[in-house]
């Protein structure tokens, strides 16, 4: 942290504490946390259509139709009280809950229709646009019933809808789709249906929410939720220890400092995120699969997991983490620098690039990732591949890789992660040629026909048992063709003050969303 950033953080904290110590605020029950600390970080304008992460916080005031339970094991109702899927898997009927928007207007089926059509429109820059491509029409049957009809079966649709926060038609309809992504409204007066409603955002300092006293799940047990922003996880941990916040994400190497401390509860779980070294397919460096294979054989993943992750990660040989989706017989790409050197020589690496520096960017800004990337850098250097790690903030990283006119030279190589959580269809977003931006998240411009075919077949399969087999095929193709160099799946951790009661946090991909029931959270004096 620079001295300027440190001073700014101190001033921001002092101003926030001053606000909180006013007589009116002192009487309120308030939970303060670092809800966006960690991978993904501060989203900036809180637009749920363009947010790749931060759902733990967004879902305290926005809500989807359906969501996952806190264990990420099954879908449960949110704004949809119930739903039915037709036998041919082409029609989804949602019966809606009784709820009002934070401004008092009634939530209706018209809002659902508006939201789906808005997210499907690529002009809005919605990350869900391509995921909704199978949606043919949305019909409002009555104020409490909406029917979504598909042009083809898509077993990933219902999971895509967990990421789609329902938006108010009456507040947004007048905004042109092309002006939606960066509209100031998202950070000044967003309107949702959740248990808390937006009060204010102090740029890069904190967001304040107030209890929605008419929420269908019951009046929240606290009056305010505060989400504070920190330059890094270390600053958030300091605030936690000082009693300024009651929760934050922590890195695995910080876990030992909290173990055995009766004042805190450590929350641990699988991240459901496969970290990978991403090869920009528009860059000729990686055209020969032997070069990609060489990268894999040059990296001693087991040593990195044991020494840097302290065992809190699991080696991955394709993008999936769920055991049922991983077939037998995968190439484990064992650490073998001699083989890596031989493959590079066969591919003509000296003529392709030699020892010229290759920029390697990431959005992970933490000491653990810096150490991991330095270790990989050293291992690759031993076989003649010279990579130069560069950490960016989330906005800077996304500005480069998700640009409508990306320059491949700016990101020939990335270190990133893609969530695949409870539903394997999510990987389709980052791997299928049909998902190349601006409609999807295949920013590495991956164009592998065999992979496209395997993904399309898996997503379209409506029989669960057959779908599992077809997702195994996807895994096998990934392992063979190496669109990414898949590294590992790490555990994630949160730490909460024992003063928090009925607090629910799950190390979910992108922060969820999941049924965290924030209206039930409370805090002891």
Automatic annotation (TrEMBL):
GO terms for biological process: peptide transport. The keyword Signal applies. One of its GO terms (molecular function) is peptide transmembrane transporter activity. It comes from the Bacteria. It holds the Pfam family SBP_bac_5. Residues 74-398 form the Solute-binding protein family domain. CDD domains: PBP2_NikA_DppA_OppA_like. Coiled coil: none annotated. Residues 1-26 form the signal peptide. GO terms for cellular component: ATP-binding cassette (ABC) transporter complex; outer membrane-bounded periplasmic space. Its main location: periplasm. It is found in: Periplasm. This is Peptide ABC transporter substrate-binding protein. It comes from Bosea vaviloviae.
């Amino acid at each position: 942290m620079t001295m300027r950033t440190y001073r700014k953080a101190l001033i921001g904290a002092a101003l926030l504490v001053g606000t909180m110590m006013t007589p009116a605020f002192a009487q309120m029950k308030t939970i303060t946390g670092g809800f966006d600390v960690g991978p993904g970080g501060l989203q900036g304008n809180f637009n749920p259509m363009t947010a790749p992460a931060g759902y733990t916080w967004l879902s305290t005031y926005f809500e989807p139709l359906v969501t996952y339970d806190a264990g990420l094991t099954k879908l449960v109702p949110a704004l949809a009280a119930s739903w039915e899927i037709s036998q041919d898997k082409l029609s989804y009927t949602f019966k809606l809950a009784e709820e009002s928007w934070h401004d008092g207007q009634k939530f209706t089926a018209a809002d659902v229709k508006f939201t789906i059509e808005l997210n499907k429109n690529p002009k809005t820059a919605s990350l869900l646009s391509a995921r909704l491509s199978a949606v043919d029409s949305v019909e409002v049957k009555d104020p409490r019933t909406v029917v979504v009809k598909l042009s083809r079966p898509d077993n990933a649709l219902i999971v895509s809808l967990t990421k789609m926060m329902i938006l108010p038609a009456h507040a947004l309809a007048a905004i042109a789709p092309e002006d939606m992504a960066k509209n100031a409204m998202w950070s000044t007066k967003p309107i949702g249906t959740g248990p808390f409603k937006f009060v204010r955002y102090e740029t890069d300092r904190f967001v304040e929410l107030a209890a929605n006293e008419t929420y269908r799940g019951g009046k929240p047990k606290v009056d305010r939720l505060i989400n504070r922003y920190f330059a890094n996880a270390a600053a958030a941990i300091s605030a936690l220890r000082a009693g300024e916040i009651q929760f934050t994400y922590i890195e695995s190497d910080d876990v030992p400092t909290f173990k055995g401390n009766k004042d805190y509860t450590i929350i641990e779980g699988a991240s459901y995120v496969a970290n990978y070294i991403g090869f920009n397919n528009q860059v000729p460096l990686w055209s020969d699969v032997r070069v990609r294979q060489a990268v894999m054989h040059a990296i001693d993943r087991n040593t990195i997991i044991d020494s840097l992750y302290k065992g809190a990660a699991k080696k991955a040989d394709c993008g999936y983490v769920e055991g049922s989706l991983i077939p037998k017989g995968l190439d484990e790409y064992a650490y073998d620098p001699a083989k890596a050197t031989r493959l590079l020589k066969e591919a003509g690496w000296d003529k392709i690039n030699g020892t010229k520096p290759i920029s390697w960017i990431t959005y992970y800004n933490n000491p653990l990732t810096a150490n991991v990337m330095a270790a990989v850098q050293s291992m690759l250097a031993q076989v003649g591949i010279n990579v130069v790690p560069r950490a960016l903030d989330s906005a800077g990283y996304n500005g480069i890789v998700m640009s409508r006119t990306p320059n491949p030279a700016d990101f020939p190589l990335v270190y990133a992660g893609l969530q695949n959580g409870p539903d394997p269809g999510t990987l389709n977003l980052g791997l299928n040629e049909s998902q190349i931006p601006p409609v999807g998240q295949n920013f590495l411009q991956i164009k592998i026909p065999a992979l496209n075919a395997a993904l399309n077949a898996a997503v379209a399969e409506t029989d669960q048992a057959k779908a599992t087999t077809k997702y195994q095929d996807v895994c096998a193709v990934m392992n063979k063709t190496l669109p990414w160099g898949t590294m590992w799946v790490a555990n994630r951790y949160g730490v909460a003050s024992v003063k928090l009661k009925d607090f629910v946090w799950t190390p979910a991909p992108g922060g969820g969303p999941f049924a965290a029931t924030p209206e039930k959270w409370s805090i002891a004096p």
